[in-house]
Amino acid sequence: MSSSTAPDRIPTRPPALPRYVVWRRWVGWLALIAIAYVIGESAEAVLPAAHLLAPLVAGLALAATGLTADQVPARLNRTCQAGLGVLIGSYLNPNTLAHASGAVLPLTVVTAATIGLCLLAAAGMARTGRIDRASATLGMVAGGSAAVISTAQEHNADSRTVAFLQCLRVALVAATAPLVVHWLISPQPTAPGTATPYTAGGWRLVTGDHQGIGLLLLAGVAFAGILIGRAVRLPSPALLGPMLITAAVTAGGFSEEFAPTGLLRAFLFTIVGLDIGLRFTRPAMAHIRRLLPLALCCTVAISVACAGLAWVLSATVRIPLADAYLATTPGGINAVLATAVATHADVSLISSVQSVRLFIMVLLAPLIIRLFTPRAVSPGNAQT
Question: How distant, in Å, are the alpha carbons of 105, 117, 152, 301, 334 from that of 108?
Fold first, then answer.
């Protein structure tokens, strides 16, 4: 029988790598992540969101100089997304909801207005032709930058552009928030003992007192969330599945002792930053330089508009304008809460508003992408 009439052969998988090669790669990745963590830890005093931005810069340097062309392993990336999902889901706890319950309507209006501003800015950026709609939308989402960046590729978005837009917003908020708060009327000191989940952690891995049990619960919730997310066809199942399960557990009043904190949370941010930094090639950098003026204008416009919303919220709910400003800044939650603690602002109120909005933003981002980019190509057909 001639070759033209021979039945098609089933393609075979490429031969598996030797076990020692696989182990050597994993050891190399773990060493690189540890180094990136140390760099981020060293930059904490001078850089906002240091465990996200410093590894991103380190990965960018490695990619731009050609020292490596590898990407963070997909399995490790999915595990990181699941951990971030649990972290974000833990922000929606009963204490947060109770503290914000007295201003549900104003907060709902402010959140909806912020989402509208982000979509408007994204639409304007996409119309210039310099950026696609999915990347613009995810890049301008105000909140949950690490989670949004880590899932960009799943929504046919350019993760490098999304990371650039998100980090630009976080850096702008972190740099200006202390100055604006000091310029405004100083808020009243908070009551002694006021705590916030974002300033605690230290060398802990999870929020509970029993670290071993907490880690087991974290692994179980993350694994179950991924399975359920895939079963119901959630967008970004590795992120949204664990996030929704954790939110249901914490909002139901159950003890939440398994959210990543301290060292583990820092490593999650480190992996996200390193993964994105390694995607910055020289052509990508050229594109970002062309995008900088437009991105800066849109980011500043959103920040100014959110300051206007803060004035409305302050007048409506009768809270200090400085507190309202910190509560409504477009993201940068870690930097904002650090500013709140340093200026003796109402940390409980600010963390409540920021946490609820962060949760809503991360939950809605994939749905917004599907709604406003119905003609997006599949990942297999996307241009590289």
Answer: 5, 14, 26, 21, 22
Residues 6 or more apart in contact with residue 352 via CB below 8 angstroms: 96, 97, 99, 100, 327
Look up the pTM and report it.
0.66
**Is position 122 within any domain?**
yes
The Cα–Cα gap between 171 and 159 comes to 18
Q: What is the pLDDT of residues 13-56, one digit of tens each?
A: 556 667 767 788 888 889 999 999 999 889 888 776 688 778 88
291 within some domain: yes
148: in domain: yes
Which residues, 6+ apart, have CB-to-CB distance to 141 below 8 Å? 118, 148, 166, 361, 362, 365, 368
Among the listed ranges 66-75, 156-165, 282-291, 338-347, which one has the minimum average pLDDT value?
338-347
Tokens matching residue 72: 């963070």
91 domain residue, yes or no: no
> What radius of gyration, in Å, describes the C-alpha atoms of the chain?
22
Q: Give the tokens for residue 222.
A: 């993350």
Range of the domain at 136: 50-71+96-190+274-375
Cα dihedral 201, 206, 210, 211 in deg (nearest 10): -110
Q: How many domains does the chain have?
A: 1
